[in-house]
Amino acid sequence: MRLFKFDQEIPFMSMRMPAMILSGLLVIGSIVSLAVNQLNWGLDFTGGTVIEVGYEGPADLSQIRNQMQQADFGDAVVQTFGSSSDVLIRLAPREGVKAATMGDQVMVALRSDGQQVDMRRIEFVGPQVGEELTEQGGLAMLVALICILMYVAMRFEWRFGVGAVAALAHDVILTLGLFSILQLEFDLTVLAALLAVIGYSLNDTIVVMDRIRENFRKLRKGGPEEVINWSLTQTFNRTVITSLTTILVLLALFFKGGALIHGFATALLMGVIIGTYSSIYVASSISLAMGISKEDLMPPEVEKEGADQDPLL
Amino acid sequence: MLNKYPLWKYIMVILVIAVCALYASPNLYGEDHAVQISAGRNAVVDLGLMDKVSEHLDEAGIAVKNVQMEDDQLLIRVTDGDDQLSARDSLAALLGSDYVVALNLAPAAPTWLQDIGGTPMKLGLDLRGGVHFLMEVDMNAAITRAQEQMVDDFRNSLREERLRYRRVEQQGDKVEVQFRDQETLEQAIRFLSTNNPDLEIEDIGEQTLAANLSEQRQREIQEYALKQNITIMRNRVNQLGVAEPVIQRQGADRIVVQLPGIQDTARAKEILNATATLQFRLVDLDHDVRDAVDGRVPPGSQLLMDRNGQPQLLQKQVMLTGDHIIDANSSFDEYGRPQVNIDLDSEGGSKMSRSTKDNIGKPMATVFIEYKPSGKTDENGKIIFDKHEEVINVATIQARLGNSFRITGIDSPAEAQNLSLLLRAGALVAPIQIVEERTVGPSLGQENIDLGMQAIVWGLILILVFMVAYYKKFGLVANAALVINLVMIVGVMSMIPGATLTLPGMAGIVLTVGMAVDANVLIFERIREEIRDGRSPQQAIHHGYDSALSTIADANITTLIAAVILFAVGTGPVKGFSITLAIGILTSMFTAIVGTRAIVNAVWGGKRLNKLSI
Question: In chain B, which residues have their Cβ closer than 8 Å to the Cβ of A138?
Fold first, then answer.
């Protein structure tokens, strides 16, 4: 069985201008949305208290809101979580350590009318911890991108490195943008997912670049554009199949993994789809636009198999 | 001949997989509900105790699977959670406070497997329920305390050297000493500098010197405060009776405490959060209390209130601090009033004996010092702690006190018990504050495991079906590699002592399942290409594997870079995810490149083939 049969190269690169414009618009749109709507930061980042409780039957949300009001937690957000008998209560951070005992107070308030309430999860995060996490998360992302840029520049060519990192930044920004537009909650697991997107999308990009390098060395004729087209055509089957298998399991995670892991699965699903597109269009278009040529990728005089390292320049 | 592995390579592949499978196997056995008994300060765990415990449980009608002694602990396995709870309660009642009785889960794997170190994966709190605290140590308080100590030391040593000073006091982050004349100042500077190499001492004019702790010393103090607090936390957690608690340092000033199985957060917090210490000081008899109440507090003294609101004028100089207390327990005195019995270490004993020697007949006060969050924060957003000092008891020194003595005048037995617990566990060197708290109920933990397993199984089935449909027999090979890969991840996770499986970790495994086939897809697509280019099947296999190798390596190393950075920078869920991702990448590279090649070589290698099922 084969998904696609190609006897000729597909002219991917002839579409690169529309693709670049599309990507550019999407990136700008994402940045605008991030600036205007911002992200719907989860508890990990904002600090505060989240309490998940389980009722025996369907929960009466207005009753719970009343109870919270009476217990002086008027600012609480009360919503169902997963099923109608599971309720999630969010409270904004408050001054002092009182926040740490807030969970106990809320449980007392909820049980005040004699209802059987099962405490499933309480999380309290201080505002400073959240602030540090935001910094750390951003830092992790930046360090990852720099390390990857260095690795790719060393193993391949600096133009590829720039292309790869641009593609990664593209994926991260678009995924963040989608989270911002849809106002999905951005918590620590989503951050982990985003870093996994970097890993995944890079995986894809490297495979394509590897083939481009190989073809530059192997094909006698043809300009950079044809070589890239031909490489993309050759790797297209693999790109699609790998994305497909990854999406398959992510769907399993999305539907079967439970509410806690939902954000994670959503971020990865978006990221994988965007990453697949970007490894085809963004990375190679940018390398091409920066003038990658046959000479840049010719092997050094003596080449040992497996240990080939291109000179830096 | 093409596509034949030498025998040693086959053996190596089989060996690696066998070892991983062996260490993965304890996970299949699950865990027994158990009760763990460890000895307190005045008790030992021995065979006698073992008999006593078995007999008692027999009488109570609780079915016991087995009783085991390991590393000074007694482990009693029972059949279910209900038995576990009743066994714990009845044993705690039997053994009293000399032993710590805790709920535990013991691996149910056969002993030979446990003997070679085969244990199941450690589960994170999100999967088994429990409390997680992140605590911040107030480093400023540690420094302030050191400075207070400095004031005392200066007074004593200057007096001994007969260098007469006007005043010694704390000014901002420095200690200032003023002298009568320039000459004494210079002598004092010389004397103090030689005796205190880690102080920065300077002349700030007006016959005054200012001393500051050197930066190095400040760092040492902070480091010490953190380490000491971790030790104390560990003691306190042991008092709570929690099996397998995690107490770890995080960053420069934080401590992570994880208590699996604990649901009663209020009590846990009370014990962990309390910062209390005792000081023993002499009552200042040379001055009038009433003058002090009116605002004329003499420089060497301090006005404190006792529990009944009565003012007490105490000398600032401390006879002894709570640091020297090695044991404390509560009991009743001859009149049935609660009291706390205190044992001191030898240094504390001799200090106490020295300072009480000359003061027989004089009143001594016991001061209870507690740091409580004030509810206010400073400009950095850190919580400001208020120091609460309270005289809990004033007693006349009847005789020279030694290594052990008692404190009376405590209101209730419960308070005496709480105080003795705090003193026994040690006083925190610097106050701490809970900055993060997470509690996961046990039912939610189990639900998380079930959902995660479902996701893994569904993902696996989808991929297995797809791969066979798409690559036929070679798809079967990839599937074998995928299943082996899962077993290897579980095996490696079980082998690494620090690795903990969390919910995001399970998500990481699911993701690896999806991405692990990538290497095989790359290889198989190559083989197909080679066949299309007109190579013979054997050559196609050979070239397919060879040319895909560097691509796979490059692609995976970059993902590995991301995983390692995640691990280094991340905390909590991010870390759990990065561990499984990194392990998954490594094992999938092994199974996809070496593992599938071994199978392919064994099945197709060395034969004349006309067609490949790919």
Answer: none
